[in-house]
Amino acid sequence: MQPDSRPGGRTTCGVKILGVGSAVPEGILTNHDLEQLMDTNDEWIVQRTGVRERRIMPPGQLRPTTTLSVEALRNALDDAQLKPTDLDLIVIGTVSSEMACPSTACLVAAEVGATPAAAMDVSAACCGYVYSLNMAESLVACGRYRRIAVLGCDIMTILQDYTDRGRNTCILFGDAAGCVIIGPSDDLSLGCMAQLMYADGSDWDLLYIPRKLTDLPDDVKPEDVKLGCLQMRGREVFKFAVSKFADIIAATLEKADVGIEEIAMVVAHQSNRRILDSARKRFGMPEEKMYVNIDYYGNSSSGSTGLCFDQVWRSGKVKRGDKVLFVAFGGGMTWASSLWQL
What we know:
Elements (H helix, E strand, L loop, with lengths): L13 E10 L3 E4 H5 L6 H8 L3 E4 L7 H17 L8 E5 L10 H9 L5 E5 L5 H14 L6 E8 L11 H4 L4 E11 L5 E9 L7 E2 L22 E2 L1 H23 L8 E4 L4 H10 L11 H4 L4 H14 L7 E8 L3 E8 L1
Parallel strand pairs: 4-5, 4-6, 11-12
Antiparallel strand pairs: 1-7, 2-3, 6-7, 8-13, 9-10, 12-13
Helix pairs in contact: 3-4, 7-8
């Protein structure tokens, strides 16, 4: 059963955006750089994905996911004019944690000085930011917590095979982190109007990161895979994403009784330019209502949605009073949405 939307949900307060931040590495990996590593070319990559370049953390960076998350969180704290100790909880959506234990969130909390705020990671692949945002908003709305930092951060370039064996996958991915800090408001209309979160583990082998040979599906040969690197069945994932993106947008709008024309911006996970364009055209949305930055940042998994929101927020493309729809899909398989009144 899906959670109730705001009109019928149990709330004690509205939920307000207090601050937004993001972080991307300075390093840039272009399509022309990839041409030197494998049998591919710029025209082929752009035509199929929309990606021209992606940001990449420097090789050998110590704790890259923690480092980029810390930068994004500090930027959001500055935007909110809050101290780290004002936070009650830090939630990070990621699949690139340096260790299974401790969580990246614990390391980030210690680094910024947010201790003893609660801290946890959420593993929902590219949906990590939206899953985390939905859970955090619900905790604030019911009065359990007051100020929560929600992050999505993935260092996807360390999970790629930059050889011909991985050329159909690695062309998509880059590194990024996005953060939003939320808190209570006396205005009950503010916050999440409707949210949906789904998963289907029966399709796990469409998108996965094997750590050992026993993680491989029965039909995959060990010599065709580099362990520790993302594996993707591109055609199947494309079909899955095109269907789920459009379906969950429609279902979320129906749940909130909101028309697509009322949405100021769709902030979508940057999966593939063709997937984004397909969803936008199905609803007859003009290009300016679905933000796209995949051409210069690539697909940064759970980092992409938060990065996009920071960019549209700071540029003034969205403002307080607007309705914004977050939507994502990812490995698991997972898909999720979060419709906000800002």
